[in-house]
Amino acid sequence: MSEQDLVERLLSWFAHHKRDLPWRREPRDPYRVWLAEVMLQQTQVATVIPYYERWLARFPTLEALAAAPLDEVLKLWEGLGYYARARHLHAAARAIVNKYGGRIPQTLPALLALPGIGRYTAGAVASLAFNADAPVLDGNVKRVLSRVYGLRAPKDAALWRLAQALLPPGRAGAFNEALMDLGSLVCLPRAPRCALCPLRERCAAFASGDPEAFPSRATKRTPPHHRVLTALIVDPDGCVLLGQRPIGGLLGGLWEFISSDLRADCVVDGQGTDQLKQMIMARAGLAVEHAEVKWLGEVKHAFTHFRITRYAWQVALPARRATEAAPNAYVALRWVMPAEVTNLALTRSDRKLWQIYQALSLPKGATTSL
Ligand code: ADE
């Protein structure tokens, strides 16, 4: 089977089996294509769809996104992870309004110059929204190409060249989506469904009898574990103190209860009052005296490259006192009414802590109603 036959087979399989996804509706709106591609990075289609719909209900156009405050953008992204994606989308929307009058540029170099747009996203937007002859390479495409060509440990540069060489001129959009769909419906990482594959006869990995072995999986190291001490500080009116994380860092711009990483040699014994006091002073410049301290619980959360456990205490102050954010800790501190906590973009583990706190602070004998 020639390369041309391979491409034709793939495209005719795609014509029958393509997924009907919201961002694929014709005519394609470049803003929607771009948004979907950013949301789909590291995130499953089923997770993305409700976020995508909510986002477009609030920001139907690129202009609407550019005009919105960052806080609101982050709030809509809450729970999707990799928050730099949302900050970059927002910054890029503003750049497109300022520089291109609100029209997304069509060429790869202009797309690549925008915040948060790398080679994958530029190729996806150029090919899917503008039908430019640009390749894409994501996890699915890498797997399909590695298997067809029997590559166990291919370098990305080689796969980009292969993806480029196979592109049928004028049909790059369909070809790229066909590779994505084959990778997610048929050429699965485990137990690939080779019986359904249009490329089976041409596939070196299938011929080997062990398609799963292509590409070989990197051995997974146990991700490092961080422990985080957290104080949910409450004033007599029930307002809670939140800090906004530095914009450029991990979970940048999101709000959290006052927290700090624990040193490796610290023991967490459920009696951590001194540690807690020092931490609150160091991070929020707040002197905690005569406070009522209550253990709230532990919350675990896994990121891609590490795991965290939050150890959380409720700290009820007898009176609200002055605060001062440590420059390396928070860009802002805010006392927030309980009803308002829902409106701020919190990290996922802070959202869980907030739920624990609310459940524990219900009056005795109270029941929740559904
Ligand atoms: N994953 C990344 N981009 C995608 C797309 N456009 N459709 C389906 N899955 C995807």
Radius of gyration: 25 Å
Major sheet characteristics: 6 strands, mixed
| Number of structurally distinct domains | 2
What is the CATH class of the largest domain?
A: Mainly Alpha
Mean pLDDT: 94
**CATH topology title of the largest domain:** Endonuclease III, domain 1
Helical content class: 40-55%
Q: Tell me, what's the shape?
A: elongated
Describe the oligomeric state of these chains in a short phrase: single chain
Strand content: 5-15%
Number of strands: 6
Strand order of the largest sheet: 4-5-1-3-2-6
List ligands, each type once. adenine
Q: CATH superfamily assignment of the largest domain?
A: Hypothetical protein, domain 2
> Which regions contain 5 or more consecutive residues with pLDDT less than 50?
364-370
Total helical elements: 15
The CATH architecture assignment of the largest domain turns out to be: Orthogonal Bundle
What is the ordering of alpha helices and beta strands? HHHHHHHHHHHHEEEHEEEHH
Please characterize this protein's 3D structure:
The protein is α+β, with helices and mostly antiparallel strands and 370 residues long. The protein folds into two domains: 3-213, Hypothetical protein, domain 2 (Endonuclease III, domain 1, Orthogonal Bundle); 225-369, Nucleoside Triphosphate Pyrophosphohydrolase (Alpha-Beta Complex). It is built from 15 helices and six strands. The chain has helices at residues 3-17, 30-40, 45-58, 62-67, 70-77, 84-100, 108-112, 119-130, 139-148, 156-166, 172-185, 204-207, 273-284, 338-341, 348-360; strands spanning 225-234, 240-244, 255-261, 292-302, 307-316, 332-336. It has a six-stranded mixed β-sheet with strand order 4-5-1-3-2-6, with helices on both faces. A hairpin with a 4-residue loop joins strand 4 (292-302) and strand 5. Helix 2 (30-40) packs antiparallel against helix 8 (119-130). The longest helix is centred in the first third of the chain and has 17 residues, at 84-100. The radius of gyration is 25 Å and the shape is elongated. The N and C termini lie far apart (60 Å). Residues 364-370 have low confidence and may be disordered. Bound molecules: adenine. Adenine binds next to helix 2 and helix 11.
